[in-house]
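Students often ask why we bother encoding 3D structure as a string. The short answer is that it lets us treat folding as translation between two languages. Here is a chain of 224 residues written in the first language.
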Amino acid sequence: MPRPAVRPARPTGAAAIPLCWGAVLLCLCLALLFPLRSPGRETPSAPAMVPAARAALEALPASLSPQRRALLEHACTLVGHVPYFWGGKSAAPGWDPAWGELRQVTAPGCADSGKRLPYGLDCSGLVSWAAANTLEDSDALALVGDGVRAQYAASTPIDWSDLLPGDLLCFPDLSHIGLALTPAPDGTVPVLHCSRSLGGVVITADAAGAGFALAARPGWLPTS
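And here it is in the second language, the structure alphabet:
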């Protein structure tokens, strides 16, 4: 006669508690070793700063205020890395993971309107992003201004001879804006800007030669 199958007894009561705690500890160890990651949710780090941007920062005067220096340090991290996108704005702290993603241009008034292009910034978007990161306030847009005309209106016009790194440079029709850098020995003023024709955030050695004609000092920046 076959023997009945004997099943091992399941631990009950106090005997089961150590096994439960063991399972919990095992799960915690696995979570530490293999953290959960959602596909497509990893935040990329900012790319390495390009040599031209590093040179621009090294040329800043030692007496420049910390706030002006911080503004240009933030802006320089984007040189050569962030594309031009008509209507592109961001108040992200640091590198925005949306940059480079294909998105439709929804802002009207440009030949790019309606196209799907890598997301980035427009010229005033570069200024407002750098300002928001300098002020460490995503609501800084109200202070800095939204768009070239608003940013120029929120600033005080100055002569080119009074320019300091971090001041604003604009086209005479207020269609484009950028940030002044340290003047070269020959008197030319480099400008850091986000240009559609040049493909994104760049440094142009001669602002006046590129069409910039107006200079202004933002009210939120120190005068030194």
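Translate back mentally: Residues 14-43 have pLDDT under 50 and may be disordered. Keep this in mind for the problem set.
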